[in-house]
Amino acid sequence: MSYNNVANQVAKDIQVNRNQIEVRATWLALIYDEMLRAGIKNTEEILRKAITRYGTIKGEKIKNACADPQDMRQFADKTPSKTGQATFNMDPVSSGYDDVHLSFKYCPLCEAWDKLGLDEQTRATLCDIAMDGDRGIAKAMGFELDIADTIADGAAACKLHYRKNK
Length: 166
Prior knowledge:
Elements: H1 12-37, H2 43-65, H3 72-78, H4 82-87, E1 94-95, E2 99-104, H5 108-115, H6 120-141, E3 143-149, E4 158-164
Helix pairs in contact: 1-5, 2-6
């Protein structure tokens, strides 16, 4: 499978942010690997719970910062930050009262996993585990999250669609 994750030129502070995210992605990959080597059978479940918990904490903070948490335009104004948008080389955020579309064209997590030489399946698994943070944010906000494409699976961009629960 071809792998689409081409870094664009960015300001120094954005590159520092990318590097910090790569460090955390490396930790995740190494913790995952060590847990598997130790024979921990529910490795993925444990990591998913922890990352979902983080997302839920972050989502609660975002929700509390919104005057009307059901207006998804307010959610889009709170996250991702301008730094986050530049870090992930995002298209402009598309938002309305009922939904938010995000498209990322670069992923520092995938960059870290590529540098580690991880195979496609491991990279895709770690990506999905990491996306549990986004799922946790959605849950805390009372939204649903659809993830259509990911760079880890070979797409040109990660496409996330937050929408109100039906």
